[in-house]
Amino acid sequence: MVSALLMVFTAVVALAAGHGAAFDPNPLQDFCVADSTSKVDHPGGTASRRCGFTALPVQIPGLNTLGGSHARVDVAPGAVFPAALPPAGVGDGLDGAVYFGFITSYPDNKLFAKVLRRGDVFAVPEGLVHFLYNNGTAPAALYATLSSQNPGLVLLGDALFGSGLADDLLAKTFLTDRETVDKIGLKFRS
Ligand SMILES: *[C@@H]1O[C@H](CO)[C@@H](O)[C@H](O)[C@H]1NC(C)=O
């Protein structure tokens, strides 16, 4: 089942490969081991108390300039790693179980989702909205291998409701009224 799903994921990755707006260039040298004492360009982690997850980069000096990065994501019981936009990536279930899914692009908006357990490996196609939800009772952790040295993270709720976008624009986008948008927005701005 897992391998069948992986094949589907791989096919989707192949289809999505040409659509990345940003990409890491090919390296100009064989390798360039990072200077771990350097103060320049240290990527930061992301922790959300509101959502209950942490995503911390795993520093591997030899990976510097090779166009990839690793992160460890911890999701507390009941917590969610909310709908986010990634570069292409592969995740590796380390501990616990977590409900993972991604949604294909418009107009299909098809949800692929399943419960991942320790040892499961999954792929996130580039640029597709995805999520992790720990709806179990034990903490869950996983490693992610990302196809960019500086992958960044776009959390849709924060980007849309925490950025100061005008309420009437958001209301039209979500086919709702300004009061509803205001109510949601308050939580992201506090
Ligand atoms: C978590 O949610 C998924 C999807 O609804 C479900 O299949 C799974 O059984 C749930 N896990 C727990 C521990 O309830």
From TrEMBL:
<protein>
    <recommendedName>
        <fullName>Germin-like protein</fullName>
    </recommendedName>
</protein>
<dbReference type="GO" id="GO:0030145">
    <property type="term" value="F:manganese ion binding"/>
</dbReference>
<keyword id="KW-0732">Signal</keyword>
<keyword id="KW-0464">Manganese</keyword>
<dbReference type="InterPro" id="IPR011051">
    <property type="entry name" value="RmlC_Cupin_sf"/>
</dbReference>
<dbReference type="InterPro" id="IPR006045">
    <property type="entry name" value="Cupin_1"/>
</dbReference>
<dbReference type="InterPro" id="IPR014710">
    <property type="entry name" value="RmlC-like_jellyroll"/>
</dbReference>
<comment type="similarity">
    <text>Belongs to the germin family.</text>
</comment>
<feature type="signal peptide">
    <location>
        <begin position="1"/>
        <end position="22"/>
    </location>
</feature>
<dbReference type="Pfam" id="PF00190">
    <property type="entry name" value="Cupin_1"/>
</dbReference>
<keyword id="KW-0479">Metal-binding</keyword>
<keyword id="KW-0964">Secreted</keyword>
<dbReference type="GO" id="GO:0048046">
    <property type="term" value="C:apoplast"/>
</dbReference>
<feature type="domain" description="Cupin type-1">
    <location>
        <begin position="31"/>
        <end position="182"/>
    </location>
</feature>
<keyword id="KW-0052">Apoplast</keyword>
<dbReference type="InterPro" id="IPR001929">
    <property type="entry name" value="Germin"/>
</dbReference>
<feature type="binding site">
    <location>
        <position position="130"/>
    </location>
    <ligand>
        <name>Mn(2+)</name>
    </ligand>
</feature>
